[in-house]
Amino acid sequence: MTAITTPEPQGVTPTPEITISEFGAQKALGILEQSGKDNAGVRVFIKSGGCSGYQYGMAIDDRELDGDLIVHHRGVKLLVDPMSLPLLRGSEVDFVENMMGGGFTVHNPNATSNCGCGHSFRTDGAQSPDGEGSGGCGSA
Questions:
Q1: Is the pTM of this model over 0.90?
Q2: Distance CA 21, CA 115 (A)
Q3: Which terminus of the chain has a smaller tally of CB atoms within 10 A, N or C?
């Protein structure tokens, strides 16, 4: 297996390619603990679909696949596949709560427009990848 690992920061280190907010980490650690999966992490990925072209996806995953970027940030293991990484580079996973409930979201500096629901996005000049996902806002 060839995984790229970014260790937990010690002292002054470069910013990881993907991060998680403090509140997001608290929520993720609770979910990971309840999952019952040893060595599990949060897989963050992109799939085609949604009303803006790409859709975010997240899942609890205890597998480290060939080519995965593995980042340990704030005690949470984040896994990103090599196809999703260019669109997620520099992003922060967060957890937001509002009157409609709560859930994970991605603050993505690569997104040039977002769907009104916040689950899909577009980048300038980029076409949606072929593969999973289709449909409108809110489909996951």
A1: no
A2: 22
A3: N
